[in-house]
Every structure is written in C-alpha cells, then in structure tokens.
From TrEMBL:
This is Phenylacetate--CoA ligase family protein. It comes from Brevibacillus ruminantium. GO terms for molecular function: ligase activity. SUPFAM superfamilies: Acetyl-CoA synthetase-like. Keywords: Ligase. InterPro entries: ANL_N_sf, CapK_Type1_Caps_Biosynth.
Length: 459
C-alpha cells in the first residue's frame, strides 16, 4: 500500500474521528450492513425515518408548520402523507429559504453550501456536519463495491477553483495531494496538445481510480483514441459524476481507459443519491433519502417504472429540511431486484435533466437524447449543442469531424430536429471549433430556455 493511502486510512481518519467527532466511517459501516437487509426491512426503516423527519419539520420548520394538525391526526403512512406536501422547486426555495431553516438552528454553526449555478441561479442552503458525513459515507460505500478504500489515490478531472489566487491555488493543491491523496486536472485544460502530458502526470501519480465529469472524461477519451494514446496503468474504476452519463460516453471512456465506468448519481443540493453497482444497476441509498417521481407538469406521482421528475427528501438534514425537493432530473424508479446482492432499491434509468427536455411546437416533450441519436448515427460531427430559445426557434452548434464530414450531414440533422420538434421551427446553425464548458466545467448538449409547459409566448 502506498504510504499516503496508509497514512490517510490509519492515522488521519482516526484523528479526525477523535478530534472533530467525524463519524463518516461509522456511517459507512451502517450503510454496508443495511445493503444486505431485505427490501421490506429497508422500506420499513426508511418509513420510520421519514416519520421522524415529518414530526420534526411540522413542529420546527416555518414552511411546514401549517401541516402540523393534519399530520398529527392523519391515519396515513408517511409516504402517502408526503403526497399532500407541496413540491419544492429551486426557485421557490431560493426565494424563501429562510422559512426552511429550523427553529433553533444557528446559521453561524452550520455548513453553508450552494449549487454551482451551471443551469441557473445558484441555490444557497445549510447543512449540518453529520449530514455531509452521511453523503460522504454513501460515496465511500459505492466506491467500496469496486474495491476502493478511504485514502486510495485518485485523479479528479474537475472545474478547477479558478477564482483562487496563486498562493491559495498552491495551498489547495497541497491539501488535495497530502490530505486527500488526490490530484486535480482542470476540465478547462483538456486541449488536444496537452493530453499526452496529462497522461504522463496521471501515470506518475498511479491513481486507483479517476473521478470527474462524464463530458470531460468523454472528451479526454476521444482525444486519447484519436491520437492512439493509452494510460497503461490498471484502474479500479472511472467514476463519472455530476452529469448524465450517456451511453456513447460510457463506450468511449471504457475503450480509452480500459476500466469499468461507474455512474455516481448525486447533486450538491441533493447529496449522493445512488451508485452504480458492478452488475450495472443504479442503487439508491434509501437509508439517506426518500425518492419520489412525478409528472413534470402536473406534479402527480407516476407509477413505478415510468419516468418523471425526481423529488428528493433528505432523511437526515434537520437544520434545513427540504421535503420533495425537485432536483431537476428525470428518472424512473424500479421495483426490480438486482443480482449483485445489494438490496438498495434500483433506479431504472436516469434520463438527464428536466432542462434537457425540449418541447415541440405542438406541446409534446422530446428528450434531448433524440438529437444525440441523430448526430451519433452520422460520422460527420465530433460534438454539438442544441439550444431551444422558444418552441419554434433554436440554435444548433456543430463541431465538424473534418475528414468525415459530408455537407448533406447537416441536412440530415436539421430534418431530424424538424421531425421531432415541428416542421416549421427555425434553426440557426453555427459551425464552431468546440463547445465551451459552462462556468462549472460541465458541457451541456441540450439547453432549453423556455418553460416546459409548451405554452411559452412567441418572441
Ligand atoms: Zn446491483
């Protein structure tokens, strides 16, 4: 075992537990034991936690006190009762966040967090230390399914902290290197000419696993394959996080790195929600969160197996409970069991973000994947971005594959978009060198700027 991994595992963590009362390892152990419980037992435990959370919220959280009498007198199970509670969308939460702070919680003692705002305004919220540790425990449990342990070296491809000055940046890198055994490569520096250098850096560091954005890994992998480069060290896994992992991305990343590509599903404002197991299924950490799936327009629950908008209720955060928080993702729950032996409930599919859905001129919803399918079926384009400004007005940015591009490819793409979104939509086509990542370092393929209701006014 390399020295740093051993120090982190055997010295640093026990010290953190002793002096900072950090309980992450206890939580990992609890999650590990729970994963083998029967689905019925897991559900019972989740239900009991949900009940405690509702007890707390209706008593202490201004946004929920109006439900106190109803909750006290109801004969319903907590899962049913939840359906009476309002959906919490990000905008509403941003505008009235103070009403979600528990009586007695002192913001000065809490952990302030915020979303990156890559898909809109940042959302600010508070957490307590144990909640953050439970999220971390969920990630470590997921990683343990691949033989990865606390302290193992990793390379992260990430939106780098560009706002830091040079000295802060150095301190940040040192902390990453020696306290976390982690090396960071900026997602902004994945240019063609630097790929060989990045590979040398990774090789020297000898990580057990890589961790980062799906789009950044996909770009890295494509450049490796184009140049015939390989990493030449064994990896336990490549962990893709913070973005939808598309099938074509998984394929190219697996091919380039020769390691399993693992989907971590989480969000800064939702915690670590699910992890992909070695059998390929996504397991939701039902010990930490309660998930519901609703129709994105009506807000009504959809039957298990059907895709809709995800609502997350964190079962532990008592300082600022957010019930039925609409994270912005589309997915389906599943009643199936997985062959891997882990009994955490299975998520059927994670379909991307509600923001990735387009709306056609006749009001139907079309997933952003459709354009992906059209473009991937042609060889002429490396990548693309489609922006829907209004149902009938779009901008398409295309990055050409110079050797393979045929002028008729553009017509094929435009015809595909029109068949899905409406024959009379106007599409401004721009050929660009690359699709720039957003401020957080993520690259988005599909962006909708008008509401999903299908009734947005024409400009
Ligand atoms: Zn499984």
């Amino acid at each position: 075992m390399p020295l740093t991994a051993s120090l982190i595992r055997n010295v640093q963590w026990p010290l953190m537990e002793r002096f900072k009362q950090n309980q992450t390892r206890t939580y990992i152990q609890q999650l590990l034991e729970a994963q083998y419980l029967s689905p019925a037992d897991l559900q019972k435990r989740q239900s009991a936690k949900l009940k405690q959370l509702l007890d707390h919220a209706v008593q202490n959280v201004p946004a929920y006190t109006e439900f106190a009498d109803e909750w006290r007198t109801t004969a319903e199970e907590p899962e049913q009762f939840m359906q009476r509670m309002p959906l919490l969308d990000k905008r509403h939460f941003r505008e009235s966040a103070d009403r979600y702070l528990s009586a007695g919680a002192n913001p000065a003692e809490l952990i302030a967090n915020r979303t990156g705002g890559s898909t809109g305004e940042p959302t600010r919220f508070f957490l307590d230390r144990p909640t953050v540790e439970r999220y971390e425990a969920a990630r470590w449990l997921g990683l343990s399914w691949y033989g990865i342990q606390i302290g193992d070296p990793s390379v992260m491809i990430w939106g780098s902290p560009i706002e830091l000055n040079q000295r802060e940046a150095l301190r940040y890198q040192l902390k990453e290197r020696w306290l976390k055994n982690r090396l960071i490569i900026s997602a902004y520096e994945l240019e063609e000419k630097r790929i060989a250098e990045h590979l040398r850096t990774i090789r020297r560091f000898r990580p057990a696993y890589l961790y980062g954005y799906a789009s950044a890994f996909a770009l890295f992998a494509e450049l490796m394959l184009q140049k015939g480069l390989s990493l030449d060290i064994p990896l336990k896994a490549v962990i893709s996080t913070a973005e939808t992992l598309h099938e074509h991305q998984r394929k190219v990343i697996t091919e380039a790195f020769g390691a399993p590509v693992v989907n971590e599903y989480g969000a800064r404002d939702g915690g670590i929600i699910a992890y992909q197991c070695p059998a390929g299924r996504m397991h939701a950490f039902s010990e930490n969160c309660f998930l519901e799936v609703v129709d994105p327009v009506s807000g009504k629950q959809v039957p298990i197996g059907e895709a809709g908008a995800l609502l997350v209720t964190d079962l532990y955060n008592r300082v600022m409970p957010r019930l039925r928080y609409q994270l912005g993702d589309m997915l389906a729950l599943s009643a199936e069991n997985c062959s891997c032996g882990i009994n955490y409930p299975v998520l059927k599919e994670i379909d991307g973000r509600v923001d990735d859905m387009f709306v056609s001129t006749n009001g139907t919803f079309v997933h952003g994947h459709f354009i992906n399918h059209i473009i991937r079926s042609l060889d002429g384009f490396r990548t693309f971005q489609l922006v829907q400004h209004a149902p009938d007005r779009l901008t398409l940015r295309l990055v050409k594959h110079d050797e393979k591009f045929q002028p008729e490819d553009e017509l094929t793409v435009l015809a595909g978009i029109r068949s899905a979104l409406g024959g009379d939509v106007s599409i401004a086509v721009h050929y660009v060198e690359q699709i720039p990542p957003t401020a957080s370092g993520k690259t988005r393929y599909a962006i909708r700027e008008c509401p999903l209701t299908g009734s947005c006014p024409q400009e």
